[in-house]
Amino acid sequence: MASNNPRHNAQAGRRHTPQRGGAPAGGQGIRTGQGIHYQPSGNDDAFYADGSGFDGGRAAGTPGNPRAHAGAGGARTSAHTVRMNVGDGVGSAGGQQPGRTIAMPPAGGRGRRRGGAAQAPAAGMVAPGTAAKRRGKHKKLKVVLGVILALALVGGGAFAFWIGALDRALGFNTEAERQALLDKLAPTRGDDAYYVAILGSDARKGDTASRSDVTMLARIDQKNKVVDLISIPRDTMVTIEGHGTQKINAAFAFGGAPGAVDCISEFAGVPISHYVEVHFDELKDVVDLLGGVTVTVPESFKAGNGGMSFSAGEQRLNGEQALAFARERYNVSGGDFGRAQAQRLIIMAIIQQVLDAPPTQLPGLIGELAGCVTTDYSVTDLIGLATKFQGNGLVMYQAACPSYSLSQGGVSYVGTMFDEWRAMMKRVDAGLDPTDTSATIPEPQASSTTLGAATNSAAPKDYRALAAKAGLTTDDVASAG
Predict the structure, then answer these.
(1) What CA–CA distance (Å, rounded) separates 136 from 132?
(2) pTM for this one?
(3) Cα-based distances in Å from 446 to 245, 297, 411, 427
């Protein structure tokens, strides 16, 4: 599933010292899945240059990203305490410099999707500096709207043209494709939580992939600031109408985005309101634009992709390192289940890094993301969503559909642990930690017969003995606890 999106090379400006905070005011309060609680800390400017070790000092840059950390002054240093059960990646919290100059990314670029590239307005537009102190959600929303208004006044029709070009870059090749997808998506209601289907490919350039390498389900709860990211193994055994027993990643090959949405929705037992397609090979450019991402690597290993080595623990990865980490499945515990975990960690780290950016940088960052994402979201939708999630209190959970390796008729599949999957989806829908099996599930989730029903699964319903003898299960994935 090769990317068709143009790239946008935005100058995001210098990045600031990361802060990870829990409840104390002024920090970016994050709990990332499976019980990780970060307390306030200080300088993360020093990072791995080769993925092998942390040097404790400030690095001048990252391979492939000469701008990373350039000119980042005023770093704060203090001890930090981390209590964790399973490690998840977090991004960095940063401030904003008054009067920062923003260069808008071009709408054309080197992409493979669009013809007729649109030109960006002239660089050098100065964003207001009044948002530097981030004084709450309403303040940030006003700042974002103010920046957009100011840019519109300065750039006039050019800015509006740029926004429209980004919407086209984020969208689909044809109106027929877009409409076919929209017909499958459920409407959202105000600030109620909703679900997003995320498909992706980590195929290298030149590869022709018709099946999705990555299948995820996200739950977005704006009201309570909770985001869940749940992997569905790509080889999950399902029935696809007209094609019999298949792996779930074939749903995209047979039915495109609409077919994938249908299949994921039936498997999870939830309506899906948005669709996002991620092209991992191009995602490395976004990681470099962000100055790298902070990830807790679950275990030490040497990746077969590019020969990079990774040490267990929290470290900063540049684009090439992040891509190698997200691709590895042969040298990590859990095989493909381990790779799915790495992909979740990278996506979560990018989300957090974007949310930590000053509001004035959001249009430029989303412009860069347009180079590796296809979605029904509009640019203004994404800016508004990011604005709502910025600030303290964000909770991010990550998990995988409880599964085991399975061979049927000489074909390797992944079987579903049905009881565990139903219980997990009930916790997800209730906004609970999906991995907390001791949590009390409230009504109406507890009595739901649709959540996690997996009515399209073709896996054996009597699965416990098979799972006990399986070569791999989702429980075999390494944790950083």
Answers:
(1) 11
(2) 0.69
(3) 30, 34, 35, 9
